[in-house]
Amino acid sequence: MPALLASLILATSSASPAAVARAWSNDLNANRNAAAARLFAPNARVVQPGVNVVLTSRALAIGFNNALPCAGRIVAIQVRGDRATATFVLGQRPKHHCSAPGVKAAALFVVRNGKITLWKQVAVPNPNAGKQPA
Which of 72, 94, 112, 114 is a good FRET partner for 120, with 20 to 30 A between their CA atoms? Predict the structure, then answer.
């Protein structure tokens, strides 16, 4: 119950993009699709290969979360302004079958007023980008 309460508080506040991404991941990993859906703003956009949809209803937001087959443990987050790019290690989640456990994936979260306005699957960021070789 504490995790659900945390989601409700985040959904009604101006939480940081990283905090919202973590709350979404926690809800998704526990198969709390309705709680995860509450983190999306009305008319939020979801983009994945072959998918570019506006979540025009709470039912669509719940359906989007339910359709994701894998849990994702956040291993890195990069934040710039209202954007957070989270890197996940995929794993099994209740009542779903993940066909890629252990694989890394990433998503961009654009968060305004504590709500996700854009969720976009992106390439996994290179942690060495911009670093000079030794």
Answer: 94
